[in-house]
Amino acid sequence: MWSPYRKRLTRDLDRWRDRGWLSDEGRAAILADAETGARSFNLASALGILASVLFGFAALSFVAAHWEEVPRLARLLLLLAAIWTGYGAAGWLETRGHTYLADAAVLFSAGMFGAAIMLVSQMYHIAGDPTDGALLWWLGTLLAGVALRSNPALALTMILVCVWSSMHAMESNLVHWPFLIGWGAVTLAFYWQRWWPGLHISALALTLFVISLGYLLADGHSHDLVAIIGVVAAIGFASLEKQRPDRDAIAEPLFVYAGTAAFAGLFALQFIESRSTGRLVALAVLTLVLLIAAISHALSTGNRGALWLAYLAFSVEILALYGVTVGSILGTSLFFLVTAIIVAGLAYAALKLARRSSGGGLTV
Amino acid sequence: MISNRKWMWPLLGGVAIVQSALLFDMIYERDRLLKSGREVTLAVRPLDPRDLFRGDYVTLGYVISRLTKSTTESDPDFSGFVKGGDAYVTLSPAPEGGWTNSHVGSVYPAKVAPGDVVLKGKVLSIWTSKDPAETTVNIRYGIEQYFVPEGTGMDLEKQVREHKIEAIVAVAKDGTSALKGLVIDGERHEDPPLL
């Protein structure tokens, strides 16, 4: 158990006992339960996961080195033995109660499986589809993640699905729609596991996929579509958050991811695509208005993630605008004028919001 | 990880068996192709040196890797080619030795002469110009990378550039091909089969 939590809990329990809400036995029982009930993710577990990742990279480099001193068959058998050892260690660690270390062992085996695929591809000079290897790898880790209910293996699967799809997209310059199948499968597994961080990984992967659409559809000129998807989704999640405050645990992070996609699309429209100054100004005004709306929404609902994202996006937007307007004195002057008006508007909005929600508002 | 004691060991074993089986299937497929496929020896064309050597493998270019309609001998059908789609190239034994491509198309040819070999590839890119005869396709067959031990690529790269290398390719009935080895200055270099 994390010791800061234990310290806080002990302090709170002492206070509650002093006020007569809690008996001494109750206090002891709660502490004992907190001590044993929470399966601890301690330093050893974190290091175990890191070690597995490092073992994986070591195995991949070992294969890449194509070391001739060890015969090919021996290299293959070595990797197969590593796969089986990892699963064996996972079972042994689980029976001893080290759940997180067992997960690390499963992750180790998943990495060795990938290295073995790479070795076979190398042995047979398979150049056909490097993506086939990635496909086989993520199918294998998905199986391990689902059958053994291993969250780290599932997280690796999502990363591999992304790698697999980006390899496809980079080679063909086309959208790799099968990504959605892999994404859906892993996301379902995360949901089945009720693993919250995993669902964050899913949302992040989908956000990246949506952003990539802008660069792949219509010869790379579909950023307007990305911006529209992002804005519509953000409005949807914002209204969900307003209407069902009990669902804010879901709506809040999703608003942040949708907002990220929207800003990425708008940014590309302004600074990668835009040809005319008039269009750039119109888009810049739209972006800044949307950012102010996002900031005010974040302030009113207490969505810290959205607030920081909007501040960050605002800074990036202003810097990029500065970058394109600087050069002519008139342009720079106009830039400062527009920025000043916007920031003044922002201050006014913040003032109104602070007055409306005085007492309950978020202080930043 | 899974905490159900009754199912844990069977599931662990199951995952390990499935993953091992996938690897063996991959090996078996390749091994069978190398042993049973028709053997074709193709001249290796030097590639742009910048593209030739990346990391631990040598990139091999072939005459049939890049086909221009006007210079393709007899019966080119470039109409059905799409980026990412299939490409079939028929090779016929040339009288003076070696192979010439006798047909190019996007579907498996209806008629294949007994001595001919059909290679299946994937269209990487299509270049079109105003003159339809100048249409050029880049095709990948999956036999373009030859993996070499770390640090030995340079010599091979030099030999590829000096036209001293031929590739031994095994071709299955459906056109799938695998790189079997190289002929360097008339000398056959081939990895012994694993199984």
Reconstruct the topology from this structure.
The complex is a heterodimer of chains A (364) and B (195).
Chain A: H1 3-18, H2 24-37, H3 43-65, H4 72-95, H5 99-123, H6 130-147, H7 151-172, H8 179-193, H9 196-216, H10 223-243, H11 248-273, H12 277-301, H13 304-325, H14 329-356
Helix pairs in contact in A: 1-2, 3-5, 4-5, 5-6, 5-7, 6-7, 7-8, 7-9, 8-9, 9-10, 9-11, 10-11, 11-12, 11-13, 12-13, 12-14, 13-14
Chain B: H1 5-36, E1 38-45, H2 49-52, E2 53-54, E3 57-59, E4 61-62, E5 66-68, E6 86-93, E7 99-105, E8 117-127, E9 136-140, E10 145-147, H3 153-161, E11 165-171, E12 177-184, E13 187-190
Antiparallel strand pairs in B: 1-4, 1-11, 2-3, 3-10, 5-9, 6-7, 6-8, 8-9, 11-12, 12-13
Describe the structure.
The complex is a heterodimer of chains A (about 375) and B (about 200). Chain A contains 14 helices and no strands. Chain A is mainly α. In chain A, α7 (about 150-170) runs parallel beside α9 and α12 runs parallel beside α14 (about 330-355). The longest helix of chain B has about 30 residues, at about 5-35. By secondary structure, chain B is of the alpha+beta class. Helix content of chain B is about 25%, strand content about 35%. In chain B, the strands form 3 sheets. A 5-stranded antiparallel sheet of chain B has the order 4-1-11-12-13. A 5-stranded antiparallel sheet of chain B has the order 5-9-8-6-7, with no helix packed on it. In chain B, strands 2-3-10 form a 3-stranded antiparallel sheet. In chain B, a hairpin with a 2-residue loop joins β2 and β3. Classes of the chains: A mainly alpha (about 375), B alpha+beta (about 200).
Tags for this model:
heterodimer; A: 364 residues; mainly alpha; flat; B: 195 residues; alpha+beta; five-stranded antiparallel β-sheet; 13 strands; globular
What percent of residues of chain B adopt helix (DSSP H or I)? Answer: 10-25%
- Structural class designation of chain B: alpha+beta
Helical stretch count of chain B? 3
User: How would you state the average pLDDT of chain A, rounded?
Assistant: 81
**Low-confidence sequence ranges of chain A:** 359-364
Number of helices of chain A: 14
- Structural class determined from secondary elements of chain A: mainly alpha
Percent of sequence in beta strands of chain B: 35-45%
Radius of gyration of chain A: 26 Å
Indicate the overall shape of chain A: flat
Shape of chain B: globular
